[in-house]
Amino acid sequence: MTDKDVEGTDLRDGRIGEDLVDIGLTSVRGPLWAREGLAPRDRSLVTLGILIALGAESELKTHVRVALTNGLTQDEIAEVVYHSSGYTGFPRAVAARTAAREALED
């Protein structure tokens, strides 16, 4: 698996800690996303919710783009953000909305 395997997103930037890309792709992306049981679309929904709850906006930006590739619409991604506000709190939802907007502008 390569850094281009995440829906064409280039995860490498030539800066410090770049090997983290390979670590993530081999330890998370491969074993978890390739499992049977959930469709990629469903995994994207779950992942978005988790990243919002964690306040992981940098990862959320990448996964918003992945979610679009996996069949979610922008309206559905917005609904995930809205829904999360009741469970993660308004500040996390606002931060997620900002991250999603930035991801969609790229």
Q: What would the keywords be for this entry?
A:
106 residues; mainly alpha; AhpD-like
Describe the structure.
The chain has 106 residues and is mainly alpha-helical. The chain has 2 domains: 35 residues, no CATH class; 68 residues, AhpD-like (Up-down Bundle). Helices cover 69% and strands 0% of the residues. The chain contains 5 helices and no strands. The longest helix is centred in the C-terminal third of the chain and has 16 residues. It is globular and about 35 Å long.
Helices, strands, pairings?
Layout: H1 20-33, H2 40-54, H3 57-69, H4 74-88, H5 90-105
Task: Pick out the low-confidence regions.
Answer: 1-5
Strand residue percentage: under 5%
Intertermini distance: 24 Å
CATH architecture of the largest domain: Up-down Bundle
What order do the SSEs take from the amino end to the carboxyl end, as H and E?
HHHHH
The biggest beta sheet is recorded as: none
The tally of structural domains comes to 2
What assembly state would you assign to the polypeptide chains in this entry? single chain
Q: Number of DSSP strands?
A: 0
Structural class: mainly alpha
Shape: globular
Determine the number of helices (DSSP H or I, runs of at least 4 residues): 5
User: What's the mean pLDDT score?
Assistant: 88
Instruction: Write the CATH homologous superfamily of the largest domain.
Output: AhpD-like
Q: State the name of the first-level CATH class of the largest domain.
A: Mainly Alpha
Radius of gyration from CA coordinates: 14 Å
CATH topology of the largest domain: AhpD-like
Helix-residue proportion: 55-70%
